[in-house]
Amino acid sequence: MHLISAAGASPSLVLQLVVSGVVLGSFYALLGMSVSVIYSTTKVFHFAHAFVYTAAAYVALGTASVLGVPIVLAIVIGLIAAVVLGVTIELVVYRSMRRSGASSLGIFLASLGISIAGPNLIQIIFGPDGRNLPVGNPALYTVGTVTFTTWDIVTVVVSWALIGGVLAMRRSRWGLASIAVSANRELSAAVGISPQKIYVYAFAVGSLLIGSAAILFTLNQAATPNMGLQPVLFGFIATFLAGVGNQKTAPLAGFVLGMVVSLSGIWLSQTFQTAVIFGLLFVALIVRPQGIFRKAAV
């Protein structure tokens, strides 16, 4: 996922930036959905998501490169590891803290600590150098003046397929229970819905999504021990732009964010990408602190 920057705004440049924006926006949409699934249900700012993101990539890398496992199976193992790690953090850390009466701030600080300690552990095991999945170079396609790769196509298709699957699951028994817990945890428990089970469900789904994002990133770029912080931060920004707890529109907010960042390449260098993202968040919080979408979703 790369951005093209230039001082001019020729039609070919704009078209290329639009295509790049679709790819980047799809990736950000997946990040936004991943964060929103967990936060809208549990109200936990799960910054340890960054560790889950990194762990998924490195488990896939380790099983493929070190153990020689076929790449498809290695990716599946990486995704399973992401789900297991995310659920374990909920069961061992967050649930224990809730039972002991910890505040939301205390849980957030524990999550932040995991997001720092986890990548350090990965760096101790694998070293600081970047590593690539053994998948070879992607095919490059050119349509007119626009270029894109196989991994760009995979990123768009997989991201929206996963997002669509999660949105469809909202109509299932587990999805409806998640909506109920998100709206009123105490009332849901009173009618027989177990918030604890729904929390595990939310962390499993959110971890699967963030693990998938990590794999998509690692197909295209090298994995590093600190790779998880920025994507998860961008996922939170997409969640805030959509309106906190607005799970249905978090992917759309992420897509808009990616398009704006990409099209900013008409005027700005790629080095200003992060500034554009935080600038957009700053403006949105001033103009529409409730989120850029008027209708909220539970």
Automatic annotation (TrEMBL):
Keywords annotated in UniProt: Amino-acid transport, Cell membrane, Membrane, Transmembrane, Transmembrane helix, Transport
Keyword presence, Cell membrane: yes
Membrane topology: Multi-pass membrane protein
Molecular function in Gene Ontology: transmembrane transporter activity
Pfam families named in the record: BPD_transp_2
GO BP field: amino acid transport
InterPro entries, per the entry: ABC_transp_permease, BCAA_transport_permease
GO cellular component: plasma membrane
Highest taxon of the lineage: Bacteria
Sequence intervals crossing the membrane: 12-32, 44-61, 67-93, 105-126, 146-169, 198-217, 229-245, 252-269, 275-293
PANTHER family in the record: AMINO ACID ABC TRANSPORTER PERMEASE PROTEIN (PTHR11795:SF445), BRANCHED-CHAIN AMINO ACID TRANSPORT SYSTEM PERMEASE PROTEIN LIVH (PTHR11795)
Family membership: Belongs to the binding-protein-dependent transport system permease family. LivHM subfamily.
Name listed for the protein in its UniProt record: Branched-chain amino acid ABC transporter permease
Species annotation: Herbiconiux oxytropis
